# Entry
Amino acid sequence: MSNLSGFVKRLRDIMRNDAGINGDAQRIEQIAWMLFLKVYDAKEQDWDMDEENYVSIIPEECRWSAWAADDRSGSAMTGDTLLNFVNNTLFPTLKNLPVTASTPIKKAIVQTTFADANNYMKDGVLLRQVINVIDELDLSDYEESHAFGEIYESILKELQSAGSAGEFYTPRAVTDFMSKMIQPKIGEKMADFACGTGGFITSWLKELDKQVTTTEDKEKYNNSIYGIEKKQFPYMLCITNMLLHDLDVPQVFHSNSLLHDVLDYTEDDQFDVILMNPPYGGSEKAEVKNHFPSDLASSETADLFMSVIMYRLKKNGRAAVILPDGFLFGTDNAKINIKKKLLSEFNLHTVVRMPSSVFAPYTSITTNILFFDRTKPTEETWFYRLDMPEGYKHFSKTKPMKLEHFEPVIKWWNNRQEISIDGFDKAKKYTAYKTENGDIELRDSNGLVITNYNLDLCGYPHIEEEILDPMDLIQRYQEERASLNAEIDRVLADITAILGGGRE
# Structure
């Protein structure tokens, strides 16, 4: 393809003229199902060569090379004929492919990918033009296929500004940093129970790939991931992403991780490493709580995923999880019990506080990365505040966060020291103590006691004024109020303790 760098622009320019496309989210979803079929067709050509008597799950007339490829002879479908085929033959066929429990994953993914997919375009001539641009991709050419992997990454980045679809994309700098610090090892298996478009999985694979030296290593690499995604669109993008990364059998499933009783998980359901950015700010149906012990049954999705993570992390396993500030200072019963379980059964060794605009423009809610393992109860926890890089007031679509912006914390990681700037803690160690009633308290080197599981430590001292989306503004006010209430409770508890526990 002569103009790979202009690939997305060419598609966008054509689709702008179609009355059926309403906004960026639909445009990207439209591109996604066609890309999936193009990439899958290239894979099937490889499988045809490598396997004796390979039989496609897709009927011949619905394979990309049969209906989409244009040999420029004038015989390719277009206009109403093409629209009729796509809407009344292609989609009904792929949505209803015969899939059973014994169907190989690499074949079953076609049906699950198309289960809720849509064709939005209404102009068959424009649809033919879009298909022709996509068909120009030569995925049999290693260099072009690799280059397209980079183009695909740019498509995923566009999700950040495509309305609510942005929730499925974690900035690559963040997933790369977390994968780097978790230090993957050949033979380990990682999981992401809300994997979106597969960002953590691809960062894990990129880090693990450096260690692949033998055929046996490559086989372990291919089997090193496990993903679940609840929503159809990001699931489709993730599967395509995995195929582009040469995972012929992507162990990524279209399901809801929260619809399983956590007490039923066994060692076979556990993983060596968990890397996640759980959905937050939303809530599940009331019956979802029934899958969790009553003391952990929160209405907040991020809390529920934290419980899933703790139940599905192997003994001696490692995890890195992104959570909003509300988790750190939250004082409702479920949050307190989740944090008590985390500190008493897991080793929460590091909390990295991230700047507020990491996920801009999707949300300005401040987030944190919790690093923990299942080796022992928490003995000490380090907090590190990652400040805005010099010259940045905030991150944005045109000035996104980069991996190099994590350099200060990477340098600090293996030579940890407490840091204070202008009287505010930037890096600080807290030691965990178990009280007589079984609770966990954190204390700093000066004896300051952090009670009620308030982990809102080494926060940002200077908050610049910024204009937020109304819902983000409400969320920010709620978080700041909860943080202030938690601080008041802590001070009152300290005063009460000094006065001798209060009156009887």
